[in-house]
Records
---
Amino acid sequence: MDEGTIQAYEDEIQALEEEIKLLTEKYEDMQQESTFFSDEEILKSINSFQSETQGETKGHASLSDLKAQLESLEADLSFLVELTGFNFTSHSKKTVEKTQNGTLQKHRLSGKCHSVSFQLEFHLLEMENNEEVSAVVSDLSIIMESTEDSNVSKFLSRTEERGDLLTFFRSISTYAEWYEHRKHTFLHFK
């Protein structure tokens, strides 16, 4: 065999090994997720879900009621998007660790605020003490589409260091709104 064919086979083998590694990690993550709950808890959840869904189907008079409710929820969502400027396009949550004291979850969130796209990735530790729930954000990572401005980059770095999601959402809302105004103004002068 020539060297080109051998290299192609070696590349294919390496790609397959990487795919096997990724699938193994995914399988282990799924196994870890399922081990957090005992068989009794799973059965209780299944029974609870079944009783809820049976009650819901009996409680709704017709399909038209469900459609009306869906239209109402869509109208509420569009109102909130119009009011806040935030339109979340995807969200994923993965439980990393669950203990008696709390739960550590990894969140990925992406969306737009007006015309500025953003992606967030962070860990959220929820702790329950005496019927009070507290949450701590850590390992915050922010990716924004339009960060040509050095002040915005500095702000994002500080926000990531502090893990301050509230400040991020408040600030990006104002920034994105004025970003739109600046864009329209510059288009006017062109």
Note: The CA atoms of residues 120 and 142 lie 5 Å apart.
---
Amino acid sequence: KMDDDDDDIPQLSSHTLAALQEFYLEQQQRKGMKTSQGFDQYSIGSIEEDWQLSQFWYSDETALCLAKEAVLAAGKGGRIACVSAPSVYQKLKEQDGEDFSVCILEYDRRFSVYGEEFIFYDYNHPLDLPENLLPHSFDIVIADPPYLSEECLQKTAETIKYLTKGKILLCTGAVMEEQAAKHLGVKMCKFIPKHSRNLANEFRCYVNYASGLD
């Protein structure tokens, strides 16, 4: 009797089914966006975060706030370097018509889709940089070291100090306050950055200049 066998098939609740359908629809829309010609490759989420690389994207509001701060700090015609901070880079690229230039130093080679502005970067080799990336050639460096360790911060700090003319905007955990001051001379701001997914560690911004983040 075929009908009796149907009772053994587990049934999803209508709520679970609706959530599942919504998830699949979202995935399809995302794929559709990525293949359509009008897709903006610079929008946050166009490259999804890879937790194995310790990637956690900022919320849209935080990325925009940090991008605007970087533009103001760099000044007219300024140069901005984003070190391991791709969601800020993506927001900067959305600012069409703004008078500044930007490059992204990133370990994740998926960001090579951004062409010449992408520079492969491994914090374990802080000064292994292209020859055309001249010392002290950026008006501001915004950096988000991938790990909350003094070793990672210290090595990233070498890169930051090589690149910047002076201004530094660092994003890292609140627990790194002492080390941030020690290695980069930066102080914690009042502004609290948020991520698109909540992190267990309290996150903060640090600067070494009079910023709009206080």
Note: The CA atoms of residues 50 and 56 lie 8 Å apart.
